[in-house]
TrEMBL record:
InterPro entries: FAD-bd, FAD/NAD-bd_sf, MOase
SUPFAM superfamilies noted in UniProt: FAD/NAD(P)-binding domain
Location of the FAD-binding domain: 13-325
UniProt keywords, alphabetically: Monooxygenase, Oxidoreductase
Annotated family: Belongs to the 3-hydroxybenzoate 6-hydroxylase family.
Name of the molecule in the record: FAD-binding domain-containing protein
Keyword Zinc: no
Source organism of this protein record: Protea cynaroides
Length: 421
């Protein structure tokens, strides 16, 4: 049973976790519900903390050779036209601004690090149970049932299965709640070039926040976040595009409307923004024995700090570190690691991530609320003096370093067997 794989479910979060485990010598199996790698969607902004995680995963250089960081940004108040410029450049000439990357590129980069067969497609999780076993180096295993009747026994189960996580529900975590806002995202394509350099543009209005930034010289990533109702649903992307231009953003500057007009409809998505209450993370059960969650399954948050994907990459590295600490080389060879105390490793991971994730959820929600709350004196004071001047740095650290993955020690077979015994 020691050779049973660590089982992971989910796209970016699952792939990143599998890469982290591979780098510390632990075998894993990624269960993906879709029949193939889900590369649809637009892009995401990766902040400095995400790049530190990608460096630990050993893949950062594959993306930095393609994408460049944003160097400055313009923030425009739609109501009065006032614009403020913000520089992301450090004293040494480097940028600490976000890097906008294609979602597809990040997925394929992570997937390319994994051995064939690591990802099992069309695998829908239906039930989970823990079975105690009589073993000196393991106290239980997770029994996972799939929709096709397959039964998988795993030393560790990591639920990276998104906002509506089956694993989170099994752990007893409360369901995410609606933030009262929705987001529209997409790519805009300019075959002859859009002319924008490494600069982001943001537009703030009461109840609305929008922006765009370049991925390369022909593509821009754009978004719109707006107050919405629980009953609202949106389907056809062409109707969605028309709604943005003729209703939601009709008073926005022509530059933004031109970007939306050039939208690649195949990349457009709409979603209600949900989050988990931070106290559910602080006081809730984020693990049970050798089962835990990561990414949106643990800490769904609004996108107002751009930390959804970034924090999931942090999760992967931290989880890999803790599992590696509780592991030894496999005495039977095969070049893999034996996890000696999975439950203890999972508890260490949860302890390290609980408060960090709760702080990001809080910071993201407050950031969106104060930005979209209007331009009156009270909201301006709350935004500039209270939130950004006092609270922001105390609950959010966009330079956060999640650490390095340890180098796997090379104990001899006899030494490893002695320690296991």
């Amino acid at each position: 049973m020691l050779s049973a794989p660590e089982s992971i479910s989910g796209p970016i979060k699952g792939l990143a976790t599998a890469v982290a485990l591979k780098r510390v010598g632990i075998g894993s199996l990624v269960l993906e519900r879709s029949p193939e790698l889900r590369t649809t969607g637009a892009a995401l902004g990766l902040m400095p903390n995400a790049w530190l995680a990608l460096q630990a995963l050993g893949v950062a250089h594959k993306l930095t050779s393609i994408y460049s960081p944003i160097q400055k940004g313009y923030f425009t108040n739609v109501a009065n036209g006032a614009t403020q410029q913000v520089s992301f450049m450090r004293i040494n000439g480097t940028s600490n601004g976000p890097v906008i990357v294609h979602r597809k590129a990040l997925l394929e980069t992570l997937a390319g690090e994994l051995a064939p067969g690591t990802i099992r497609f069309s695998s829908k999780l239906t039930s989970i149970r823990i079975v105690a076993i009589d073993d000196e180096v393991s106290s239980s295993i997770a029994i996972i049932s799939l929709q096709d009747g397959t039964i998988i026994k795993a030393k560790v189960l990591i639920g990276c299965d998104g906002v509506h996580s089956v694993v989170a529900r099994w752990l007893g975590l409360t369901a995410p709640v609606n933030s009262g806002r929705s987001a529209i995202r997409g790519l805009a394509v300019f075959p002859q070039g859009h002319g924008y350099k490494q600069t982001s543009y943001r537009f703030l209005d009461e109840g609305k926040r929008a922006g765009f930034a370049p991925l390369n010289d022909k593509e821009l990533y754009w978004f719109l976040v707006y107050n919405s109702t629980d009953e609202e649903t949106v389907g056809d992307p062409k109707l969605l595009q028309n709604d943005v231009m003729k209703n939601l953003a009709k008073d926005f500057p022509p530059s933004y409307l031109e970007v939306v007009q050039h939208a690649d409809l195949a990349t457009m998505t709409w979603a209600q923004l949900k989050f988990r209450y931070p106290w559910d993370l602080i006081f809730g059960h984020l693990c049970k024995g050798n089962i835990t969650v990561a990414g949106d399954a643990m800490h769904p948050m609004t996108p107002d700090l751009g930390q959804g994907g970034c924090s999931a990459l942090e999760d992967a590295v931290v989880l890999g570190r803790h599992l590696a600490k509780s592991s030894l080389p496999n005495p039977n060879g095969h070049g893999l690691i034996v996890v000696l105390d999975a439950a203890k490793a999972i508890e260490g991971y949860v302890k390290e991530r609980r408060w960090r994730a709760a702080g990001l959820i809080t910071g993201a929600y407050l950031s969106g609320w104060v930005q979209q709350g209007g331009s009156g004196f009270f909201m301006k004071f709350l935004r500039d003096t209270i939130f950004y001047g006092f609270l922001f740095r105390r609950v959010v650290n966009l330079q956060y370093d999640c650490g390095k993955l340890p180098i796997v020690s090379s104990l001899s077979k006899s030494d490893a067997q002695t320690k296991i015994d």
